[in-house]
């Protein structure tokens, strides 16, 4: 059975990804900081107390996951703050650092912590955002979010190069504008629809297509 591990799956898109992979017949493992009733209701393997800004916590999680390789590692955890240029006070700069730590360094920590579980044929999906695209930035603002997602795109590209000799493919994935807690319920699609598209992208991922930036709807995005 295909084993899929989702980092940060207690709510939102991560929870929907867990449900979608369960529907597709995978053995699903979810890490989270704190479990929720919705996650428990899925009946998947859960590792609680996992904080992506803490390498030790991720290494403990790697030890706690049931024995076996990970065929699909999805790093979903992320945060959004909304800094504006005319209001860059110390609080805003602290939020920019926080977003870097969670959104950019967190996925690198997570893939590094679980690398021993990745085998030839394993696939890694990193939830990024088109807000990290330089080419797509027509409105400014959102300094920490845009910078951290651009940085995780750079990390994902390096991971694609570094993991290719091990037979592991990596995709940078934008889920669309999704109605979750992060967007205050605004968006074009529900988490379930985004999760189905993201899962299709990972089904199609190969070493040939590794290191590219995809929208959940299947279109390729510019860096
Ligand atoms: N929604 C959109 O329109 C949209 C668009 C583009 C990209 N994305 C990306 O998609 C991913 C999921 O977003 P979402 O909309 O589902 O957001 P969400 O509803 O706010 O959920 C965020 C998830 O990340 C987890 N998380 C946050 N900080 C964490 C940390 N330090 N350690 C471990 N887990 C942490 C949260 O866990 P807790 O419950 O413990 O906080 C939660 O499970 C994010 O990477 C986001 O940037 C979303």
Question: What features would you describe in this structure?
Answer:
The structure is a single chain. The protein is of the alpha/beta class. The protein has one domain: NAD(P)-binding Rossmann-like Domain (Rossmann fold), CATH 3.40.50. The protein is 39% helix and 15% strand. The chain is built from six helices and seven strands; from the N terminus they run E-H-E-H-E-H-E-H-E-H-E-H-E. The chain has a seven-stranded parallel β-sheet, with helices on both faces. The model has no long low-confidence stretch (mean pLDDT 98).
CATH topology: Rossmann fold
Helix content: 25-40%
Q: What is the count of DSSP helices, taking H or I runs of 4+ residues?
A: 6
Report the structural category. Answer: alpha/beta
> What is the percentage of strand-forming residues?
15-25%
CATH top level class name: Alpha Beta
> What is the count of distinct domains?
1
Average pLDDT: 98
Looking at CATH, the homologous superfamily is NAD(P)-binding Rossmann-like Domain
Major sheet attributes: 7 strands, parallel
Could you say what the CATH architecture is? 3-Layer(aba) Sandwich
Shape: globular
The topology string of helices and strands comes to EHEHEHEHEHEHE
Q: Distance between termini?
A: 35 Å
Number of strands: 7
> Which small compounds were modeled alongside the protein?
NADP nicotinamide-adenine-dinucleotide phosphate
Low-confidence stretches: none
Query: Which strands sit side by side, in order, in the main sheet?
Result: 3-2-1-4-5-6-7
Rg, Å, rounded = 16 Å
